[in-house]
Amino acid sequence: MPLISSFYGVLIYMYFMDTKQHHTPHIHAMYQGFEAVFSRVERVEPLR
Predict the structure, then answer these.
(1) d(CA 28, CA 11)
(2) What is the pLDDT of residues 1-48, one digit of tens each?
(3) In Å, how far from its chain's centre is CA 4?
(4) Beta-bridge mates of residue 28
C-alpha cells in the first residue's frame, strides 16, 4: 500500500488495485494507532 501523503503525523495510504479484499479505490488515514477509511463511489447516470 503506497504512502501518498503525510502531514502533522497523519499518514495517507491508497489501495487502488486490491480487488481480492477491497472492491473500490479508497484511502486509509492513520494517526497514533487510529485508522479511518474513506471511499468515494460515483454513479454514472445515462444521458436522456
Answers:
(1) 8
(2) 688 899 999 999 887 666 666 667 778 899 999 998 887 766 666 666
(3) 10
(4) 13, 37
Backbone dihedral region of 33: left (phi > 0), alpha (psi from -120 to 50 degrees) or beta? left
| 4: CB partners within 8 A, 6+ apart | 12, 13, 14, 27
Locus of grid cell 503525510: 6
In the chain, where the domains are located: 3-39
Determine if the pTM surpasses 0.70. no
What CA–CA distance (Å, rounded) separates 41 from 8? 27
The one-letter code for the residue type at 36 is: A
